[in-house]
Automatic annotation (TrEMBL):
Residues 14-185 form the DSBA-like thioredoxin domain. The lineage of its organism: Bacteria, Pseudomonadati, Bacteroidota, Cytophagia, Cytophagales. InterPro entries: DSBA-like_thioredoxin_dom (IPR001853), Thioredoxin-like_sf (IPR036249). Gene3D superfamilies: Glutaredoxin, putative protein disulfide isomerase domain. GO terms for molecular function: oxidoreductase activity. This is DsbA family protein.
Length: 213
């Protein structure tokens, strides 16, 4: 009889400024709650659109807005579309990813909750989470002091670690956000690519756990 691994580890590859991730993070949180103390989740930052220095063009804004509408239709979560009304719309996801990686260093147990808060700040409240001051305010309710956050967030080391994680995710073969992988002795095993509902995600997880380690 196949013995299932104790407390399997899932890698959740995401980006705080990814619309489909915004819709999918509640699914991951419900899965973790359903599998309480039987499943661990580690958030990995995928870097949806890092280091962007130029504003979005009109066609890029149109494509992104359509993507948001589709994600909203699937997730039924609130979206604030004022982002697209700005004259110069910048869409650099690196700072938010770096903030999430900083949180993982400082408060690893809060990664999913803070990811949810970053999603909501950007998509529902229309806040610019590429702005350091906004990030500080989003994190404040979680008890992370501003000076402690900035002491890590602004270091060369965390910049490099963020890029290293982008590279790691690419090496894993991730080409869609969100993606979920099961940690395995022979390398991460893909569970889910893109948005799906909880029953489908749980079914895929159970199937993957049946494959011999």
């Amino acid at each position: 009889m196949q013995t299932l691994p104790e407390n399997p580890l899932l890698f959740y590859v995401t980006d705080p400024m990814c619309a489909w991730c915004y819709g999918f993070t509640p699914v991951i949180r419900r899965l973790r709650a359903l599998w309480f103390e039987r499943l661990s989740v580690q958030v990995l930052v995928g870097g949806l659109n890092p280091y962007a220095q130029d504003p979005l063009t009109s066609p890029e804004k149109d494509r992104l807005a359509v993507n948001w509408h589709r994600a909203q239709g699937k997730s039924h979560l609130p979206f604030d579309y004022s982002f697209f009304l700005q004259k110069s719309t910048f869409y650099d996801t690196e700072p938010a990813c770096r903030a999430l990686l900083t949180v993982r260093h400082l408060r690893p147990g809060l990664s999913l909750e803070i990811l949810r808060a970053l999603h909501s700040a950007f998509f529902a409240d229309g806040l610019d989470i590429s702005n350091t001051h906004v990030l500080v305010e989003v994190l404040r309710p979680f008890g992370i002091p501003e000076n402690l956050f900035l002491a890590v967030f602004e270091t060369d080391e965390i910049y490099q670690q963020t890029q290293d994680e982008f590279d790691l995710v690419e090496q894993m073969g991730v080409n869609t956000l969100p993606s979920v992988y099961l940690d395995h002795t022979q390398g991460p095993r893909l569970i889910s690519r893109g948005f799906c509902e909880l029953p489908e995600l749980e079914d895929r997880l159970i199937q993957a756990l049946q494959i011999p380690y």
